[in-house]
Structures are given as C-alpha cells and as structure tokens.
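Quarterly update from the structural biology core.
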Amino acid sequence: MRIVASRAGRKTILNWSGKVILVADIGGTKTLLALADGTLRAQRRHENDTYPTFIALLDDYLEQVRGERFESACLAVAGPVEARTSRLTNRVQWVLSEEALYAQA
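Predicted structure, tokenized:
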C-alpha cells in the first residue's frame, strides 16, 4: 500500500510495511488512539481531563486493547517537540518524552 502524506504543501510517498502501528492524536481536551495496519482498528476517544498524565491515559488504552500488539507508534501532539520531548500547549502538566514512552512499552 502506498500512502501520500502532505504537510505545508510538500508531499511524501510512504511505502506501507504492513506492520501494526499505534497512532494517536493528542490534543488539549481529547486524545484519539487506534491501531493501524492499513485500516484503523481498536479506535478509542479519551477525555484528557480524566487522566493526570498521558502515560495514565496510555495505560488505560493498552488495558482496553490487551492482547493487541504493535511494533511502533506515531503521535501527533498539540505542542512543540524539542529534544524528543513535548509539553502540550493547552495541558502543560502533560509532558511526553521518548524516554517515558519507551519505559512504558
């Protein structure tokens, strides 16, 4: 499968490997999570106010989809990313770091 992604007018062609990826759209008020393998499955919407941290939210999602496996993750974050860490613009107490996510895996 070929996927075309566009950002700021640039197009990128991606070759789909067929592997399962955890995908997330992390905003200030809600987070959308799913597993992608050419289609989206195990889709969930979480209200961020319910969780003190993103890791707590991720724990809940992983419990809901227990038994599902994924090989990598792609996160869209509502905030700047510097040095592999992001602090959400509208939820500054949520800090997402590569280190914390690897520790969770």
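Residues 54-64 form the longest helix (11 residues).
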